[in-house]
Amino acid sequence: MDGSHISPTGGNAIAACLAGASVKFGSFIALSDISLQIGAGEFWTILGPSGCGKSTMLRLVSDLVPPASGSVEILGKTTEAARLAREFAFVFQDATLLPWRSALKNVELPLEMGRSRGITIPRGDRSPRELLELVGLKGREDALPHELSGGMRQRVAIARALVCQPKLLLMDEPFGALDEMTRDRLNMQLLEIWRETGITCLFVTHSIPEAVLLGQKVLMLRAHPGGVKEVVEIDLPEPRHVELRETPDFNRYSAYLRKSLEEC
Amino acid sequence: MAVTESVADVPGPKPRAPSLIGRRLASAALPVGTAIALLLLWQIGVRVFEVPTYIAPAPTDVLAVFGEHFDLLLRNFWPTFTVSVVGFFAGNLAAILIAVTFVHSRLAERALFPIAVFINTIPILAIAPILVLIFGPGMTSKVVIAGLICFFPTLVNMVRGLQSVSPQTLELARILSASKSEIFWKMRLPSALPFLFSALKIAATTCVIGAIVSEWIGADVGLGALIIDSTFNFRSPMLYATVFMSSGLSVLLFALVTITEKLVVRW
Which residues of B touch A83 (CB under 8 A)? Predict the structure, then answer.
C-alpha cells in the first residue's frame, strides 16, 4: 500500500519534524524558524497569545500553507506526500460538516473525496458506523447536522477525522465554542480515543487548563514574530481525569504557563 | 419534522393534529375574510354607484365569464403555460450554466457580468419587440422573452450560492486532496441549492410576466393576447377573468417550485 505501515508507531518514531520552518504572508512573518520533533503517539497542546500563529502552525503541518524556508516532514515524508497518503487529519474549530449530509454520510466524506485524483484512500479498521459509536453517537447516524448539538457535531467531525486511520490528528481549538461541561466530556473522550488508537495529537487551544489537562507536552508560542517560546513537559499521572484539575501539581503547571503566556 | 410525523403516526387519541389544523385554519381565516370583505365592498360599490361594466365589472360579472367562457380561457391558458414553463427552464438553465462558468473563471465573470447587468437594466417591455424582430413571431421569441426575465436573479443568486462554501470547508477539501469536480459536485452545488431555490421562486412568477408580455406583440393566442383583445373590445369582465387566470398561473408555478424545494432542500 504505502510506506506509512513500515514505520512503527510508538517507540522513538517521529510523527512530525519541523526544521527551521518559517511562514510568510507577503512581507508579514507569521512563523519564524520553528524547529520541533513530535514523537509518535505523543499528545501536544499548543498555547500562545492571539495572533501568534497557532493556527498557522497547524496549517503548515497539514500542507495548507507552504513553508517560506526550512522544512516540514510527517513520518519522514513531505507534507504533500503525507496529505495524499492521508497520514494526518484536521479537526476545525467549527465542525465544518456538510449540512445536507447525515452524520454517517459526513463521516464517510473522506472516503469519497480524492478518488478522481487517483489517490489510494486507506480504510481504517473501524467502519464509519463504528467510529460514530466510538464518539458516542450510536443511533444518530441518520441525523442531519442541524438536528445535532454543537458538541455532537464536533464529535461527528472527530469521527470523520479518524475514518482513514491517520497517524497524526491536528485540532484547531476544536472545543473552543462549546460550554464547559460539554468541553470536559469531549476532552475525556478525546483522551480515551488517543490512548486507544495510539494516534499523535497536535491540539491548539487558548485555555490553559485544557492545555495542561490534555497535553503531555505544551508548546508555548510567542508572537511578533511567531516562534517557539518553550516546550513544557506535563508530568501528571495517566490516565488523566478532570479531577486532576483540583490537584496542586496541576495548579502549579497552570500558574507557570499563565506567567509564561504573560511574558510573550 | 420527524417528531410531528411520529406523533401523527401514533394510533389512539390525536390531540395535536386537529389543533394544528385548527391553528392553520385560524391563521388563514383572517386574509380570506379580508378578501371576501373587499370583494363584497367592490360588488356593492359597483352596484350602488352604477359603474358601467366596461369601466369596472362587478365580481359576479367576472364569475359569470368563468362559467360561460371557461373553455376560451383554458384554450388561451395552455399556450401561456407552455411559454412560461419552457422559458422558465431555458432562462434558469442558461443562468445556472453561466454562473458555473463565472465561479470557475474570473476572466469570464469580468468580461460578461457587466453585460448581463446592462441587459437586465433594459425594461422587458422595451426589449421584447426587438426579440420578436430577431426571432420572429413564433414560439422562439416568446420563450426567449420569458427566459430572459428569469435569467438575472438566478444568475446572481447562483453565483453567490456557489461561492457560499466556507473557507474551512475548502480547507477540508484540500486536506482530502479533492479535485475541482469533487468540490463542485459534493460541496459547491449542494451549498448553492437554497440560493437557487430563492431565485427560482422569483422566476416562477416573473416568467409568467415575460410570457404575457411576449403575447402582447402579435400573438393570436395566449392570456396576453386575450388581455389585449378584451381591452380593445371593452370586454372588461373577460379582461378581469384573464388577469385572474394569469395570476393563478403564477401561483401554480410558485407552488410547484416551493414543493420541489421542500423535497430537495431538507437541511
Answer: 175, 177
Q: What is the pLDDT of residues A218-245, one digit of tens each?
A: 999 988 888 888 898 988 888 888 888 8
CATH 1.10.3720.10 given to domain B69-264: yes
Using a CB-CB cut-off of 8 Å, the residues of chain A touching B182 are 112-116
Q: Beta-carbon neighbour count of residue B206 at 10 Å?
A: 24
The span from the CA of B74 to the CA of A217, in Å, is 79
Q: Between the CA of residue A59 and those of A22, A48, A63, A125, B160, what are the distances in Å?
A: 12, 16, 6, 27, 27
pLDDT tens per residue, range A170-210: 999 999 888 888 889 899 999 999 998 899 999 999 999 99
φ, ψ dihedrals at A163, nearest 5°: -65, -30
Domain boundaries, chain B: 30-57, 69-264
Substitution target from A80, A100, A105 for chain B, most B beta carbons within 10 A: A100
Residue range B160-179: average pLDDT?
94
- Shortest distance, CA B256 to any CA of chain A (angstroms): 22
Grid cell of B183 as nine digits: 468540490
Out of A98, A119, A144, the one facing B190 most closely (by C-beta) is: A98
Three cell numbers, residue B70:
371557461
Q: Is the pLDDT of residue B11 over 50?
A: no
Q: Of A85, A90, A86, give the one whose Cα is nearest residue A57.
A: A90
Given CB atoms, is B175 within the 8 Å cutoff of chain A? yes
Nearest CA in chain B to A83: B175
CA distances from B103 to A113, A175, B135 (A): 20, 33, 31
208-267 in chain B: CB under 8 A from chain A:
265-267
CA nearest B172 in A: which residue? A90
pLDDT value, residue B159 = 94
Question: pTM here?
Answer: 0.83
* Start-end of H helices in A163-221: 180-197, 208-214
